[in-house]
């Protein structure tokens, strides 16, 4: 056995042993019967900062990691088409979770780490009604995973990575035995800040918030490999970057998130946070992005989302699967539906994340487009996760 292969085996064994040890130290209140349990840490570590005040964002630095906050993620999603019009959706997401803020300079081991990285990579093949998914996890040590932005931005976990190659250009690469992506993304707009200049309030208590910005229109070209077939594709991608330490309030269990790219060069982000009593938090909100990158903040009172259909998993959990979105102040009405229903991700935590299409009107103009929807908290509460 060569040294490289032996090291890889040791790394996987260490990660498994570390996770078993970590989870054995944690406890979590029992959820409703037959719901799976998952928790990174039961509650935010008090040593981490909270998202309370507005911040001055600086790029490319703020594309990178913010280890003073406990939780952070980089979300890339996109709808891509080959020359014949065949559709693919993809998701490549990196999560960072801080375990502590302890100084590691006095630790002799190269394995010493206080950050855990998790990555999700999915591909939706609409034509064949298939949704492929893969998850990886690693500690932030030995260059196994991490994020940096000293000059240009990079985030990676093993061989999955996003690399910034100029002010507004990025490459995405990720591969499994069954599928892979190799994409080039060019930002057509400036970074878009949600909430109050990037401070996105989620709950009633101070710190129930995140810092949140997006790249809402990333023109995308590249290749998708599915089994032994390679497809040249192009389309649009979307990037979300959020970081905070205590995002959800005590009575909140999950959220419904929409990223919609209209064919009139506008984009729409909406999220509604669901509570224990099945009501929607009035901290839910949204952002309309115009063609010139100027934005309009949308309060919960302005947004009307009605579920028109549902989809049931093989083990009996129910997700919404079609929506009517109305925003009276924008004269907007859209019907949104999944490209395929089966786009649930069954990872450490289960959630639905999938490609969608939509059509409707804005003012007196017909519009259509594609986007992504994320649905959490339908199988298990997200309390203790984010």
Verbal overview:
By secondary structure, this protein is mainly beta. The chain has a single domain (3-375), classed as AttH-like domain (AttH-like fold, Beta Barrel), CATH 2.40.370.10. 6% of the residues lie in helices and 51% in strands. It is built from one helix and 23 strands. It has one helix spanning 3-25, and strands spanning 71-81, 87-98, 115-125, 130-139, 145-148, 154-157, 160-166, 169-175, 179-187, 192-193, 199-201, 209-226, 229-244, 252-262, 267-275, 285-289, 295-299, 304-312, 318-327, 332-338, 344-346, 350-362, 365-375. Strands 1, 2, 3, 4, 5, 6, 7, 8, 9, 10, 11, 12 and 13 form a 13-stranded antiparallel sheet that branches. Strands 14, 15, 16, 17, 18, 19, 20, 21, 22 and 23 form a ten-stranded antiparallel sheet that branches. The longest helix has 23 residues, at 3-25.
Short description:
6% of the residues lie in helices and 51% in strands. With 386 residues, the chain is mainly β. It has one domain (3-375): AttH-like domain (AttH-like fold).
């Amino acid at each position: 056995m060569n040294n490289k292969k032996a090291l890889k085996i040791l790394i996987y064994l260490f990660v498994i042993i570390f996770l078993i040890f970590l989870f054995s130290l944690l406890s979590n209140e029992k959820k409703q019967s037959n719901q799976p349990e998952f928790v990174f840490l039961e509650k935010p570590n008090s040593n981490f900062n909270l998202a309370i005040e507005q911040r001055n964002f600086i790029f490319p630095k703020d594309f990178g990691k913010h280890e003073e906050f406990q939780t952070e993620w980089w979300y890339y999603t996109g709808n891509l088409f080959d020359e014949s019009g065949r559709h693919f959706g993809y998701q490549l997401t990196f999560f960072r979770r801080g375990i502590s803020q302890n100084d590691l300079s006095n630790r002799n081991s190269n394995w010493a780490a206080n950050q855990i990285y998790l990555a999700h990579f999915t591909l939706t093949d609409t034509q064949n009604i298939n949704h492929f998914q893969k998850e990886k996890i690693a500690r932030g040590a030995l260059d196994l995973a991490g994020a940096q932005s000293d000059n240009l931005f990079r985030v990676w976990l093993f061989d999955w990575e996003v690399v910034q190659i100029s002010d507004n250009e990025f490459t995405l690469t990720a591969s499994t035995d069954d599928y892979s992506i190799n994409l080039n993304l060019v930002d057509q707009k400036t970074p878009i800040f949600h909430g109050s200049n990037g401070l996105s309030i989620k709950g009633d208590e101070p710190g129930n918030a995140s810092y949140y910005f997006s790249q809402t229109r990333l023109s995308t070209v590249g290749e998708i490999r599915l089994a032994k077939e390679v497809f040249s594709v192009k389309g649009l991608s979307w990037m979300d970057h959020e970081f905070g330490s205590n995002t959800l309030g005590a009575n909140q269990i999950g959220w419904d998130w929409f990223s919609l790219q209209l064919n009139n060069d506008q984009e729409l982000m909406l999220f509604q946070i669901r509570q224990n009593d099945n009501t929607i938090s009035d901290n839910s909100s949204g952002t309309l992005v115009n063609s010139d990158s100027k934005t309009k903040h949308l309060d919960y009172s302005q947004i009307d989302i009605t579920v028109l259909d549902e989809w049931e998993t093989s083990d009996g959990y129910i997700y919404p699967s079609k929506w009517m979105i109305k925003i009276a102040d924008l004269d907007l009405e859209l019907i949104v539906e999944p490209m395929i229903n089966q786009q649930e991700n069954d990872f450490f935590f289960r959630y639905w994340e999938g490609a969608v299409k939509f059509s409707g009107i804005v003012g007196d103009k017909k519009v259509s487009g594609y986007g992504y929807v994320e649905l959490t908290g339908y199988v298990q509460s997200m309390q203790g996760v984010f």
